[in-house]
Design goal:
Blueprint: H1 4-22, H2 27-50, H3 59-62, H4 68-87, E1 96-102, H5 109-123, E2 129-134, E3 139-144, H6 152-156, E4 159-165
Antiparallel strand pairs: 1-3, 1-4, 2-3
Helix pairs in contact: 1-2
Amino acid sequence: MPSLGLSVLSLLLIVALWILFVGGTRRNEMFVGAGVLVLSAAFLFQVWRTETLRLEVRWEDVVQGWRIPWYVVSKVCEIIVILAKDLFKIKRAGSFYRVSGFTTSKSDPVLIARRVLAIAYTTMAPNFIVIGIDSRQSRMLFHQLERSSVSKMTKALGARPGVQRS
């Protein structure tokens, strides 16, 4: 069970996100928000009570996210080029399922946290959708519209680029 401070911080974050979501603090929105907060708190309590998976998130792994804005911008441009080529019948858009090695473990909390961060961070770029990471075979399955290499950020979180294949 997480600390009381983490629980309060989570609930405050939920409140702030609700206000941001509804775009105001009108009375009826706050009543609904209170219901959302109660349901969210019940959900978090249930998850924290039953979850046995341990994560150990390291600061250097979280910081890998600094590259995300550049990846999003560059991959959006890449998607626009793919769309234009497909619309003007220059080159058909591709659909590639790819596999890359990935350092995993079912019991090491650091590697589990890296796997979670790798999926979340990498999937933010629109041309690189992580379908999943198989911890038994230490492989990451992902989808792309145009083949490209695994990003530096994903490599830093555990991807092994030499094992890619279609």
